[in-house]
Amino acid sequence: MSEKLTQEEKQLLLKLARQALESGARGQPLPPLDQSTLTSALRAEGASFVTLTEGGELRGCVGALEPNQYLVEDVREHAVAAALQDYRFPPVQADELAGIEIEVSRLTLPEPFDYTTADDLLARLRPGVDGVILRDGFRRATFLPQVWEKVADKEDFLSHLCLKMGASPELWRRKHLEVLVYQVEEFRE
């Protein structure tokens, strides 16, 4: 992520995410997008997460950790996936759309986080700044930096992340895991 998005680019991404969400929930195809009208930042490769909330509660969250398509397409794809494919929730229905709020997180490239011990890992994590990816073999899980708002304690944060990965909550203490960190540019409706 080289430069921050402009306010206009953020508003357009939110508008396109809303259109994609509504199309997906109604079983309709995504509306066509005229790429020639988009800024270079929106046509650059980008990774995003789209988070849906309803009444302040999580309703879906899907994204990518590394860029593999234009940012604008990534956001549209993840808006639909958050509505229909987040295994933790039933698919969003058309009658829910008015109560759903959209948040977009544009990610920096994840970087390896070198640490020596569990205490060193705790000391160097930056709550509210770092999104964290834990990897253990084929298992992996991530929390966006916004999760620190709900799980502010570093030990709890890492334990919950291990649980999300399908591992013991103490795994981060007992085993040297691969850790990567990233930051986000986050904006919402």
Average pLDDT reading: 95
- List the helices and strands in order: HHEEHEEHEEHHEE
Number of helices: 6
Instruction: Write the CATH architecture name of the largest domain.
Output: 2-Layer Sandwich
CATH class of the largest domain: Alpha Beta
Protein structure class: alpha+beta
The CATH H-level homologous superfamily of the largest domain = Hypothetical protein ph0010, domain 1
Helix content: 25-40%
Main β sheet profile: 4 strands, antiparallel
Strand content: 15-25%
Structure write-up:
This protein is of the alpha+beta class. It has two domains: 7-107, Hypothetical protein ph0010, domain 1 (Glycoprotein, Type 4 Pilin, 2-Layer Sandwich); 111-183, Hypothetical protein ph0010, domain 2 (Dna Ligase, domain 1, 2-Layer Sandwich), CATH 3.30.1490.150. Helices cover 31% and strands 24% of the residues. The strands form two sheets. The chain has a four-stranded antiparallel beta sheet, with helices on one face. Strand 1 (47-54) and strand 2 form a beta hairpin. The two termini are 21 Å apart.
Detail the topology: elements first, then pairings.
Elements: H1 7-25, H2 40-43, E1 47-54, E2 57-63, H3 71-84, E3 100-107, E4 111-112, H4 118-124, E5 131-136, E6 139-143, H5 154-164, H6 171-174, E7 178-182, E8 184-188
Antiparallel strand pairs: 1-2, 1-3, 3-8, 4-7, 5-6, 5-7
Helix pairs in contact: 1-3
